[in-house]
Design goal:
Layout lengths: L14 E8 L3 H18 L2 E9 L5 H11 L3 E6 L5 H11 L4 E5 L22 E6 L6 H18 L10 E5 L15 H11 L4 E6 L14 H23 L1
Parallel strand pairs: 1-2, 1-4, 2-3, 5-7
Antiparallel strand pairs: 4-6, 5-6
Helix pairs in contact: 1-2
């Protein structure tokens, strides 16, 4: 499933939704939005940028409204209260209106300049999933992520190098056919597991990962981890039941 070679059309995507889930990311959101506008307009003429504010308390909510007013291609989606990473992704996918949808996190740890490399791959599959070539996190977090990736891939029969990498491109039609229930960190696993069981295909590509320069990560929070494990076994039971019914 690694990235395919000898592609012919470098820009096969003609209509693209790009969104960022943002929770207290005021310091990085403006730069990320401007970078997205610059990159995406070189890929296709029909696009939208969706900023999903997940109940931020640092002024991010006001900023995304400001950006939506400043740039016609930008739209703001708000959660009145913080609902969790999975809920933010659900809102982004549901708000997307174009044929293809790409998301990355609002913390600026990925380079949107690498987005064009995903475009040719989507002609041969339904999902292009990035994996971090070198993850810029502490050793404990990297170890936890490795173990989590192995666990969920084993439980759901997936073969992915970095299931939670926030650099993915989808055919939007997928979200008309699958359910999404996870409100926390399990959302990537849920989407990919359900999509594979519907017959959708995935390819992978390496992308660079950069240190966080602003904001604060919530991924290592004990409550976030506990929530992910609670959702994990409920999700597995739900998917297996549907698969056997």
């Amino acid at each position: 499933m690694d990235s395919l070679k000898n592609q012919t059309d470098p820009h096969p995507v003609t209509a693209l939704s790009v969104f960022f889930p943002c929770y207290n990311e005021k310091e990085s959101t403006r730069a990320l939005t401007k970078k997205a506008l610059s990159v995406v307009k070189e890929i296709c003429g029909d696009f939208e940028i969706i900023l999903v504010d997940d109940g931020s308390t640092d002024g991010t909510a006001e900023l995304v409204d400001e950006l939506a007013g400043e740039y016609p291609a930008v739209r703001a989606v708000h959660h009145l209260q913080n609902q969790g990473y999975g809920s933010a992704l659900q809102s982004g996918f549901r708000a997307a209106t174009k044929d293809y949808v790409f998301y990355t996190d609002g913390d600026g740890q990925f380079d949107l300049g690498e987005l064009p490399a995903l475009m040719p791959l989507i002609t041969h599959c339904d999902i292009v999933s990035g994996y971090r070539i070198y993850r810029q996190d502490g050793m404990i977090r990297k170890l936890n992520a490795f173990c989590w990736n192995r666990l969920v891939c084993f439980l759901f029969g997936l073969k992915l190098r970095d299931i939670d990498c926030a650099f993915k491109l989808y055919k939007r039609e997928i979200f008309d056919t699958i359910e999404m229930h996870s409100t926390g960190a399990l959302i990537d696993t849920e989407i990919l597991a359900r999509a594979v069981r519907k017959g959708y295909t995935i390819t992978q590509i390496g992308v660079h990962h950069y240190p966080r320069t602003a904001g604060e990560s919530t991924g290592a929070d004990f409550k976030v981890i506990l929530r992910a494990f609670r959702e994990l076994f409920k999700l597995r039971k739900n998917i297996l039941q549907k698969n056997n019914s």
